[in-house]
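Run log // design_07
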């Protein structure tokens, strides 16, 4: 606990369950308010991120700047700190599922700032900015219970307990908080169908992920590989391969996605992450254009390749009950086709922290602030979840537009419309107005 937290009785106590990108960002944002006590409980023995690249949209950068994190992240990623020449959304979409040379069917260019960063670098920056005394590792939440006093008791797998006034579930796609919330509400509201929101469902897609050195691509003979020139999506029926640079352009983030429409929406019984092989990948994309074969050959045959099942959360009917809230993937885990999941978690965390931190929010009005968070953020999270999946299916020619690339091209542009909607700070102000309509409340973050 920080000195200020120790010295005075806090306005209220917040327990953040889960120390991924969303949970850490929320903890940092809340710790800006000296009179709010915050503790983060993480199941793992250290904070860690799996995978390589993550997209940070301009919307999320504006939050990182306000919270004083942007400078360090830019430095870690070797991105110029003035932001003047930040790249905007740019992807070359190629038709690639034929043995002969493919062709560019869409140069996706939209004026939305969009930077790719290395997950480990991002996490390091977040951990560096955590205040002292807020971190609790090896604390896996099992259940929570409302006490007569109004506080919430948390029970962890190691037998220990903790107490808070507000529990925020930032515990990802398999959220224990979401599980209990929807199981309890199914009973309380006499609506057994609510249990369908407990478990994630298979999106229909899985992905092979890898990272190469860009030097390997540069060192190849012949004309420059398209992945060197621009972030690229190699598209085919039911499959796609995506590449984009991370770590200041020194590394290439590679993802190969495969979709089985008939399996989408069902529960996935097997393990989510399995070991595959370079050979499986080569077999999967056999008959695709030479540029894709070039990429696949960069994966050393002796090295294991990880294959991920992509699950998602059913769009939720609510994300807040009493003084318990769901944030980030716990509320809207989505497919990665728009690279938007982490950034949506960041926006959730920012709006929630701004509402909680406002001086009008006290233990007595906490429920109002939480409802305002839900009112503003739940529809947005759901919308992006749906657009991300739709876009994936469009570029893999699985939508109602089939392989009509002209129509798909226009629809893909439109699927990103949410990026230019009101920025997160305006959304926070909207949430405050909704929460305190007569108070002319303005954001204090
Ligand atoms: C293949 C792939 C590619 C992606 N690419 C992008 C991209 O380019 N851009 C983007 O924005 N998003 C992307 N995403 C989505 C992004 O990774 C997630 O949206 C984001 O990491 C979610 O962060 P989170 O903190 O909400 O959840 P998580 O990262 O899942 O963190 C949850 C944390 O909670 C902990 N936890 C779990 N259960 C408990 C418990 N019971 N008690 C305590 N702690 C617990 C976990 O250990 C973990 O640390 C991608 C996702 C996938 C699968």
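design_07 sequence
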């Amino acid at each position: 606990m920080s000195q200020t937290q120790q010295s005075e009785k806090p306005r209220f106590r917040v327990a953040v369950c889960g120390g991924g990108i969303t949970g850490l960002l929320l903890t940092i944002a809340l710790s800006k308010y000296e009179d709010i006590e915050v503790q983060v409980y993480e199941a793992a023995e250290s904070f860690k991120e799996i995978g390589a690249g993550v997209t940070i949209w301009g919307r999320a950068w504006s939050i990182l700047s306000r919270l004083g994190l942007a400078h360090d992240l830019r430095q870690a990623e070797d991105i110029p700190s003035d932001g003047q020449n930040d790249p905007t959304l740019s992807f070359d979409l190629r038709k690639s599922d034929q043995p002969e040379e493919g062709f560019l069917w869409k140069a996706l260019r939209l004026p939305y700032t969009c930077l790719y960063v290395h997950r480990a670098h991002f996490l390091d920056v977040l951990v560096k900015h955590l205040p002292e005394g807020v971190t609790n590792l090896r604390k896996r939440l099992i259940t929570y219970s409302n006490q007569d006093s109004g506080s919430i008791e948390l029970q962890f797998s190691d037998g220990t307990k903790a107490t808070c006034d507000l529990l925020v579930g930032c515990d990802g796609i398999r959220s224990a908080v979401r599980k209990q919330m929807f199981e309890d509400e199914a009973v309380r509201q006499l609506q057994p169908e609510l249990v369908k929101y407990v478990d994630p469902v298979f999106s229909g897609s899985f992905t092979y992920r890898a990272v190469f050195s860009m030097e390997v691509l540069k060192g190849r003979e012949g004309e420059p590989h398209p992945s060197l020139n621009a972030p690229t999506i190699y598209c085919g029926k039911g499959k796609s391969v995506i590449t984009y640079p991370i770590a200041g352009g020194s590394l290439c983030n590679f993802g190969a996605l495969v979709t089985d429409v008939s399996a989408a929406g069902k529960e996935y019984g097997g393990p989510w992450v399995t070991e595959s092989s370079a050979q499986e990948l080569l077999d999967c994309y056999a008959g695709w254009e030479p540029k894709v074969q070039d990429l696949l050959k960069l994966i050393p045959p002796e090295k294991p390749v990880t294959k991920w099942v992509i699950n998602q959360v059913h769009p939720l009917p609510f994300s807040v009950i009493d003084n318990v809230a769901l944030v980030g993937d716990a509320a809207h885990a989505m497919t990665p086709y728009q690279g938007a999941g982490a950034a949506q978690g960041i926006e959730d965390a920012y709006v929630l922290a701004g509402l909680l931190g406002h001086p009008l929010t006290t233990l007595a009005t906490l429920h109002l602030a939480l409802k305002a968070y839900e009112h503003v953020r739940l529809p947005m999270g759901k919308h992006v979840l749906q657009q991300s999946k739709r876009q994936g299916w469009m570029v893999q020619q699985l939508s109602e537009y089939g392989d009509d690339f002209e129509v798909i091209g226009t629809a893909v542009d439109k699927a990103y419309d949410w990026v230019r909607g009101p920025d997160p700070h305006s959304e926070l102000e909207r949430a405050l107005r909704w929460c305190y309509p007569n108070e002319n409340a303005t954001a204090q973050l």
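The chain has 15 helices and 18 strands.
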